Amino acid sequence: MLVGVGLNRQVASRLAEHRLAEWRRLDYAQWRLMLDDSESRQVVAEDGKRYSVVSSAVDDGDGRIRMFVAVDDGGWSALAPLRQDEIMRSDGSLLD
């Protein structure tokens, strides 16, 4: 039996939230510059594991931009990473 295998979803969620918080400090024009770009970071989290944090921005229609963050630990979670997103309207407000 394998013990301790699998994505620590709490840690992965904190990593995704941290990345989204970085974007929330930016304005709409800066988000537009990131459309269709993707960024990958390798992060060692507080649990000592290495996580891949991949982020990208896409046009969500009607002037909205959606930022995606996907987090995995390189194991099976790479097939179905934890995902979080944020949507900004053209007026700079975030969609709740």
What's the gist of this structure?
23% of the residues lie in helices and 36% in strands. It has 96 residues and is α+β, with helices and mostly antiparallel strands.
What does the model show?
23% of the residues lie in helices and 36% in strands. By secondary structure, it is α+β, with helices and mostly antiparallel strands. Strands 1-2-3-4 form a 4-stranded antiparallel sheet. The protein is elongated and about 40 Å long.
Average per-residue pLDDT, rounded, comes to 92
What's the helix count? 2
Q: Tell me about the biggest sheet?
A: 4 strands, antiparallel
Shape: elongated
H/E topology pattern: HHEEEE
Gyration radius, in Å:
15 Å
Count the beta strands: 4
* Helicity, as a percent range: 10-25%
- Strand order, biggest sheet? 1-2-3-4
Catalogue the unreliable spans.
Answer: none
- Structural class based on helices, strands and sheet pairing: alpha+beta
- Quote the distance from N terminus to C terminus: 42 Å
Strand content of the residues, in percent?
35-45%
List keywords for this structure.
four-stranded antiparallel beta sheet, 23% helix
Strand and helix map with partners:
Layout: H1 9-24, H2 28-33, E1 38-44, E2 50-61, E3 64-72, E4 82-88
Antiparallel strand pairs: 1-2, 2-3, 3-4
